[in-house]
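# step 3/5: fold
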Amino acid sequence: MTNAQLYTIIALCIYAAAMAFIGCFSYGKSKTLDGFLIGGRNIGGWVTAFAYGTTYFSAVVFVGYAGQHGWNIGVGSIWIGIGNAVLGCLISWLLFANRTRKMTKKLSAKTMSEYFEKRYDSKGMKIFASIVIFVFLVPYSAAVYKGLGSLFSAVFPGVETWVWMLIIACLTAVYLVAGGYVATAYTDLIQGIIMIVGVVCLVFAVLNHENVGGIAGFMENLRAFESLPNDPNPTTGAQLTNIFGGSSFKFLCVNIMLTSFGTWGLPQMIGKFYAIKDTAAIKRGTIVSTIFCLIIGCGAYLIGSTSRLILGGQLPEGGVDAVIPAVLMEVLGGGTLGIILLAIIMILLLSASMSTLEAVVLTSASAVAVDLIPSIRKKSTKPETQMILTRVLCLAFVACSFIFATQNIPIIVSLMSFSWGVVSGCFIGPYIWGLFSKKITKIGAFAGMIAGLLTVGGATLYITLTSNFAAAAAKSPEMGVCAMAVSLVVVPLVSAITKKKDTKRVEEIFECYKEA
């Protein structure tokens, strides 16, 4: 066993013990369904901010997005991190946090599906939303497993990737099932601190690598870069140093929109606003989460943009998904300090992934246990039964996503893009318009959901039939952006031509904004 492996195992054991302790400690606060799902709506600003940020960024951001886009686009890819912080975080908090907290409290809604049911008085929307969440968040979580598994395999080349994915699954399941949302929120706080420390250390390490030349030499060396003759994705130094992405400008804009605006419709992100306790906490959370996202997002893409210099222009075996693991081993693989930093970085990426997994698992399990099953059963389901069922389904969802991740589906970024596109495309219109407008009808909201789903599904089917699935996967970011735009447009248009039947009920709901 090498020193890198030994330090990583020690750090992993300490981390696992800490997460298990938090899960057990939080068990007493998660005995009710309200406590298990949204922490009794009593979570502070700092904790919610870190929960939002760590759910936003997983190992897929580093391995998939930062690795691929940093390698192909260069420094222009940093705009994705800036867009995520400003559009996906700051604007989201400013526009939606307080309204979401007040309206979901007024409606006594604990989940996204329950919000749709009570806002639009539609059990059908609740069932449809629950199915979409459960089905399409499986590949989302699978992408997280694969991204993290590939990183650990780089440090432990003799251990199969599925072994690491299984360890991650078991660890996530333990503290999530024990402590629910409270456990995930407080582990997210610790995980977020680890992520900040890890990213800062890694940025410092890559910039001081001899091939990069520090802050002063970075742009100069990258500008002088020339692709190797056998490079499958040749580029130029001018392209890599173009601050606006050069020839990849359109591609860059699409990915900024997908990964930023996508959070506006993702239930695992919006759910953080349900749990925050008051307006003062929202103000703190807005600032803290934006700073967190700037550090993590910009840091990740900056690291990715140095990859061609650090690896000498040689794309590692495994393609762009192997870029960041190769960079880690090159930068931190030697010397005691480097090995210690490598262990910290591995825990950073484990933290990022587990925080995303726990949010996705809790969202999906509650969609079935709290929303879907009670809606199709003739008999009412007791809260105690829903609690047990939710915990069991958390385990089941972890198992399903683990199995999906072990299949040979190599395109990490496409898995994430498809999931973001479908889920956010379905929900973004009904969710946002439902918060701001009294004129939105049940038919209009439902039309927006279906339109978002059909936009991605129809485009994927057409491209697959006329070309192949790989071509459809390459277009997944564009599909997702189009789905979100279609949903936002269809909801008010259909509402304008359909009859409003529940004006008095809607007026009562919107009274929540007048309350303190």
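# step 4/5: annotate
The chain has one domain: 3-19+46-411.
# step 5/5: archive (pending)
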